[in-house]
Structures are given as C-alpha cells and as structure tokens.
Design a protein that fits this description.
Layout: H1 2-14, H2 18-22, H3 24-30, H4 55-73, H5 75-101, H6 106-120, H7 128-147, H8 153-158, H9 164-196, H10 201-210, H11 231-241, H12 246-290, H13 292-298, H14 321-326, H15 330-336, E1 346-347, E2 352-353, H16 364-368, H17 383-401, H18 417-428
Antiparallel strand pairs: 1-2
Helix pairs in contact: 4-10, 5-9, 7-9, 7-18, 9-12, 9-17, 9-18, 10-11, 11-15, 12-13, 12-17
C-alpha cells in the first residue's frame, strides 16, 4: 500500500498521468520495451512537459512514418487506377475484336496490332493506307460474321457502295477506341509521375506531429493514444504533403472528363455501326431477290447461318468524375484513410483539444501558407503528359464535333474519302 501511495505521489510531483509513465502504447507501436518517461527533450513533437518521447523515440516515429505514409496517401489514387485498368482492358478487348474479326491476313493483323499498340503509347506509325485497309476489312468482317458466311471478293466488289456507311461507322468506332486507349496511357503516365517521387521531410515531420492513424506524437502521452487528429489538422497536413501534386490532380480530372465523353462516343459509334450493319443485311437480302447478277455471284449468302445471339457489350464505366476528384483530396483522405472526424476533442499537434488554424486551399497560393508543411512540395515533372494531353484533347473535341483537319490535295472520286481522311487525321496528328 505504501508503494502505491509513493508512486502516486511521484506522478503528482511530475504533474503527469500515471499511464504516461507506463508508455505502453508507444512501446507496442515501436516494439521497444526500453522506452521510459523522460524529461522534455524533443526536436519534432510540440510537447510542453515530460513524456515517453525523447529525440531517439521521435526519430523512430519519423522512420515508421516514412515507411507507411506514402502508401497511405496514394491509397485512393491506386484504387482509382485499378478501376481505370479494368475499363482499359475492356477497350483493349474491343480493339482486339475489331482486328480479329476483320478480313485482313494474319500477318497484316499482327502488323496493325503492333501499330495500334505504338499509337496508344504515343508513337504514331499509322498511315492512311493502314486505316483505309482496316476500315474496309472490319466492315467486311462484321458483315460476314453477321451473315454467318464468307464473302467472296466478287461479292464485296458488288457491295462496295452499299457498304460505305458501315465502313465509315467502323472507322469512327475504331478511332474512338484508339483515342480512348491513348487517354488511359496518359493517365498512367500521370500516376507514375505522381508516385515515383518521395514525399518531403517537412511532410513526414508534419505527419508525426499530427498523429496520423499509424501513430505519432499523440502516442507520447498514453492518455491521448486513442485520439485521432483533428480533421482540420489532418487536412492541412495531407494537403501540404500533396502540394507537389496540385497540377497532377487537375489534369487527372480533365482526362477523366474526356474519357467519359469518349466512352459515350464509343457507344454512339457502336450503335451507328450496328444500325448500318442491319441496313446492309436488309439490302443484301433484297439484292438476292431482285438482282439476278448479284444472285448469280453471291447466292451462297442465302445459305449462311446467322448467330443466334448478337454480341452484347456494356458501355458502363468503372470510374467517374467523383472518383478522380477523390484521388488526391485531403478531405476525402482524412475521412476515408486517416479518420480525422472531430473538431474539439481531438489531437491538435500538442494535446487533446481544438485545432484553431485555418484550412488552406489545395492551390499553389493556398499551400504557400500551409502552417503544418512549410516549403515546396516534391518536384513532379508532368510536362510530357501535359503535351500529350493537349494533343489528345484536340482529337476528342474534333471527333465529338465532327470537325476535320485535312492536309494535302483531295481526290474527288468517292464520297467517303473526306470522312476517311478526317478520321486518319484524328489518329495520325502528332
């Protein structure tokens, strides 16, 4: 009994709670049973009295923060990109289907697939001849598949003008998919640029002081161990950690909006191609009844077995504008990842209480005033991605509005040639 009273007296003299002397939570976090209460000796933590954290313990907290924080900060970004990858794979499958179902030779299919892959990564080796070839071959392949029979060269020649609408629709459909895949590649470039640089030392120090979810100065006093950071404090810290990513977030949101627009165009052009194919099949059946020459050359078209079910594709996207907005958003991260939910009874950098400083906007000007993470953010170079985005944006807007950019003289032989060259311009403009 005397020992307990003596221990209580010591705790009163030190003016600290008895639980602090145990240092149980920070011992557990750092797996270090040697941690004891010490006289105030801090470089990082803003504490007014004795605690479980001396300079050596602070350094251990800082190292733990460096191992964990970056993954936590980019958690939502990585989740967003998993959705992006899922949707990209769907568009890849559509492109593969166009190539495989075409009437091109196998060697030409392989060569075009390589050129399309290069286009997606920003290296354009496509020629007007390539696109005219896939335009015709994909239309012929779609008709053959739908009729369930192989079309001879003679039949294709006799249907040349009838197939014009389908050829145009197929090329627009292909162009929209290719440009969309190019957009996904630019989004990936932005992600790589964003995550390849380490966070700054000022960011890590701010995170330790703020006591973010995995532990910090809030654990130096055991009685505050269960306190999460005040939401405003959390938002200032994470905005400061991400201040080098302001432009990255802006362009990621722009790209998302254009990808959503492109997805609508892919769906629109798919419908147009389906309508054109249905009309062409009706025309073929009519010709077989009334055109003796056509029947003589193409009577085998009557004997084809049409697919029992039409191929269906869902054009719903895995992500939306709101998903992109949340990727590098400190307010969303603090709610979803770091659980800073209180404004009064929370850890405010030095004790439990209220965080009374302003929240600074996630802009260059706002973050220059950030009290928790001073200095500049990491240097994130996205100049190449921005240049690619500007070219991509032009292609999307022209495809959406039907405007064309034509270089060189135009022959006037076939009505579709203008549209063919316009879509070539979308795909070959560099």
């Amino acid at each position: 009994m005397g020992y307990i009273l003596s221990l209580f007296a010591v705790c009163c003299l030190l003016n600290i709670p008895e639980s602090v002397g145990q240092c149980t939570r920070i011992r557990s976090l750092l797996d270090d049973d040697s941690i004891r209460i010490t006289s105030r000796s801090n470089d990082i933590c803003i504490l007014t009295g004795d605690s479980c954290c001396n300079k050596a313990v602070e350094n251990k907290l800082l190292e733990k923060t460096k191992r964990i924080l970056k993954n936590r900060v980019f958690l939502v970004l990585n989740q967003f990109y998993s959705k992006v990858d899922t949707d990209k794979n769907k568009k890849d499958a559509l492109l593969t289907k166009i190539i495989k179902s075409s009437t091109l030779s196998q060697s030409k299919k392989i060569a075009l697939n390589e050129k399309f892959s290069s286009y997606v990564t920003g290296v354009n080796t496509l020629t007007s001849a390539d696109l005219e070839e896939i335009r015709s071959a994909s239309a012929a392949g779609a008709l053959a598949t739908s009729l369930g029979v192989t079309l001879s060269a003679t039949c294709l020649d006799m249907l040349y003008f009838d197939m014009e609408t389908l050829r145009d629709a197929q090329l627009k459909y292909l162009g929209a998919i290719l440009i969309m895949l190019r957009g996904y590649a630019i989004m990936t470039d932005l992600k790589i640029a964003a995550t390849s640089q380490d966070l700054t030392e000022e960011c890590y120090v701010g995170a330790v002081r703020g006591g973010l979810k995995f532990g910090g100065c809030n654990l130096c006093l055991d009685e505050t161990a269960t306190r999460q950071p005040c939401e405003k404090l959390c938002r200032n810290i994470l905005s400061g950690c991400l201040k080098g990513h302001i432009q990255t977030r802006e362009y990621l949101q722009h790209l998302t909006l254009y990808q959503i627009k492109l997805n609508s165009l892919v769906e629109q052009f798919s419908r147009e191609a389906t309508t054109a194919l249905d009309n062409l099949k009706s025309e073929v059946k009519s010709k077989l009844r009334v055109d003796k020459d056509f029947y003589a050359s193409c009577s085998n078209l009557k004997r084809g077995t049409e697919p029992t079910e039409k191929a269906a594709y869902s054009f719903g996207m895995e992500f939306n504008e709101d998903d992109a907005r949340k990727t590098l958003s400190s307010d969303w991260l603090c709610q979803y990842v770091f659980s800073g939910i209180s404004e009064v009874n929370c850890w405010n950098r030095s004790k439990v209480g209220e965080y009374r400083l302003n929240i600074y906007e996630f802009t260059d000007e706002g973050q220059r005033q950030n009290p928790e993470v001073p200095g500049n953010g990491p240097a994130i170079n996205i100049d190449s991605a921005i240049a690619s985005y500007k070219d991509y944006k032009v292609k999307v807007e022209e495809l959406d509005q039907g405007r064309v950019t034509i270089n060189g003289a135009l022959p006037s032989s076939t009505p579709s040639f203008l549209l063919t060259l316009s879509l070539i311009a979308y795909l070959t403009l560099t």
